[in-house]
Amino acid sequence: MSRIALVDDDRNILTSVAITLEAEGFEVETYNDGQSALDAFMQRLPDMAVLDIKMPRMDGMDLLQRLRQKTKTMPVIFLTSKDDEIDEVLGLRMGADDYVTKPFSQRLLVERIRALLRRQEVIAKDDAGEVEESKSLVRGELTMDPLRHAVTWKGKDVSLTVTEFLLLQALAQRPGFVKSRDQLMDVAYDDQVYVDDRTIDSHIKRLRKKMRTADDDFSAIETLYGIGYRYNEE
What we know:
Blueprint: E1 3-7, H1 11-23, E2 27-31, H2 34-43, E3 48-52, H3 60-70, E4 76-80, H4 85-94, E5 98-101, H5 106-127, E6 137-139, E7 142-145, E8 150-153, E9 156-158, H6 162-172, E10 178-180, H7 181-188, H8 197-214, E11 221-224, E12 228-231
Parallel strand pairs: 1-2, 1-3, 3-4, 4-5
Antiparallel strand pairs: 6-7, 7-8, 8-9, 10-12, 11-12
Helix pairs in contact: 2-3, 3-4, 6-8
């Protein structure tokens, strides 16, 4: 049973999410500020943490920074408000693994938690030499390893969130074929979650930006205005 730490100053969120996660078979620990969570983490680390960014005593950014001094590998998901794009970018640079924007579907959060725990399990087995070679997706200069949640472009590692990985995988699986925004929404979110076109566009924008950290000339993801996106092998 995986232990999940929830850290948020909104007691309604703590209660409702904890009930959902416990119903899914997780052990849940809740904290309503960053300092109390950090004190507990110093004694015993959970398997992963879900952190709100804006909290009293110690916010999510400060907590993540202190946490990464103790562990580089424990998965962390940020809960952010709709207008916190800068915080999202900073959080990912500091070592968060993914973020979910409020208001959020609890089913979506559960799936993101499961995806990160699966990745962590594979990494642990890989380090122990127990994982068989997985079937990588290779498209031109792009290599994607779904089991390890690993992406390389021209041999350089690119760190993507769960959502960005799923979107890139969906596009790269069929080069030259157009994926509409609705189709990409179905890939990244469950059918109980409503997101608008701009959400997908924002993810694609960040995805391109990250790929360009490996190659300034990256242009494999093409926009077809009014239609969607497609992947072109380079």
